[in-house]
What we know:
The complex is a heterodimer of chains A (387) and B (216). Chain A is mainly β. Chain A has four domains: 88 residues, Immunoglobulin-like (Sandwich), CATH 2.60.40.1080; 91 residues, Cadherins (Immunoglobulin-like, Sandwich), CATH 2.60.40.60; 84 residues, Immunoglobulin-like; 83 residues, Immunoglobulin-like. Chain A has one helix and 40 strands. The longest helix of chain B has 15 residues. The interface between A and B is large, with 31 and 41 residues.
Amino acid sequence: MIKRFWSGLCMILLLSGCGWDGTATRPNDFTRLTSITISAVSASIANGTSTKLTATGHFSGQFSRDVTDQVVWTSNNEGVAKFDYTVAPNKNRVTAKGVGSAVITATLDGVSATYSLTVSNATINTITITPATVSVPKGLTTQFAASGTFSDTTVQDLTFDATWGPSAGTFATVSNDPASKGRATTRAIGTESISATFGAFPALPATPATLTVTAAVLQLITVTPANPIKIGITTFSFTATGNYSDGTTVDVTARANWVSSQTSVATIVATSGSATTAAAGTTTISATLDGITGITTLTQSLKALVLTPTSVILTATTSSRFKVTATLFDNTTQDVTALSEWTSSAVTVATVNNSTDKGLVSGVATGSATITATYGGQPVTATVTVQ
Amino acid sequence: MNRTCRLILTICLPFLLCSTALAEHAGPYIGAFVGGNALMDAKNTDKLGQFSFSFKPNMAGSAVFGWEFAPGNPVGQGRIELEYTRRSNQLDTVKFVEGRFTGDGDVKADSLLINFFGVYPDKKKWAPYFGVGFGVARIDASNLLVTGQPLATGSDTVMAYQLGVGVDYSLMKYLTLDLGYRFFATVRPQFVESNGQKFKMDYMNHTVIFGLRAGF
């Protein structure tokens, strides 16, 4: 009894623990927002360009948080600076419309902050695209950036403000969508010239960049069949299907390197994916090509699975009871009739009970039917002839 | 001698006059307990994620009414009782993604449990016991604040359970000192945040109590 007392005390102490010590994932939206700070890359931008502003909320001196997407952005002089977009990712982008000054305001929960923005009359001198040269596999995308040097020696990011091309190139296209300005999508193997222009007529062109589209790369390998369960000593083949960056799929079975993690359970031919089971257990089958690996598991659970009788002749008014016997690797047997799933290929000829009295086959009408019992994912069959 | 000292002496003096005895009482009893409780850091969950409360330890008080089984009975040595306990804890800090912030307000728990205790009936003055209890608890979150701003309020009645161990010290045939520890927990109560969102809170509590049981 005294041991039970101490056992009880220890159990309580173990159960009680010290309380939750996990990581909080909920933001604090209770502490009051007391001020906002607005920042930008530069307080002065050239006419015709744009820039993004950032709003940082300060909560009662306790913490700060980026509230850029939550604030309402306004300009007191939309003839100088205007917010042209109302949704992310450009909700906080202000576009210079005319030379002068504007006061930008960010407001959230009754708290406001202002920022003075100046639009200059500087003109573009040069525009440069980066990277100047790049190679990208077919099917993938890459981001180009444009940078402009102005007459007042300032340098501004013009990626969003430039007009990109080609919009329908043979080998690649470049987006002018506000959400993806300057993003190139590859189309075919070859070399494409990437252009960017900025400014009013005549627009200043940049020295074109070169995008070389190379062959698609392997991104994923799928091994089939997926997670098979086998019975007994058997040899069968796996298939490896490669998914490439251009959306194509290729059978890479013969090119992949095949490995079985537990060779005591199953071995596999490294160059063909042909597997032979050996003993009960589970092994991981992997196929690797070009640094990409696909995996699946192979389970060997039984030595044999037998359905008896293998065939029977019935009349329309008679029944016969079938039985499924599983043999384990220690050579013990187990009746798994009630644990199997039963089906008939022709229920108009013969039916099989798959509920309260599994394995009971009843004749219905003249003909032949195949009775299938499936255990552990493995089917076994027998033939029923109704005369 | 001040009034407090006289009061303490009045309560304690009779103990000096008691001679220890083996616990032989069987039948009904009542009891009163006081002690301290520590409410464990609580994980809270709402639609926006998880956050936690930390509480300050505080006092606890209990009253019990039960039945003590006679030694040698077929059920075994022990007792069954109805227990009312009041626990109260002040919110100390609240932890969000941004960090830990000052909290305020109280969480009170009024529980009504049926306890089953087994006693080790060694023929000595001290008799250890352990057991379990089941019942209900009303958890009340009074004006919880974080950084001075309203966080939540409300109350919820939930199922409760406890595990208990302790020792009895028999003063007289009908009077027993009881020093015990209780691990008390409930199904997660639900409260409403100041913004209208609902959240669920862990409630798990360590309580140490000291009191008297008197049979009659």
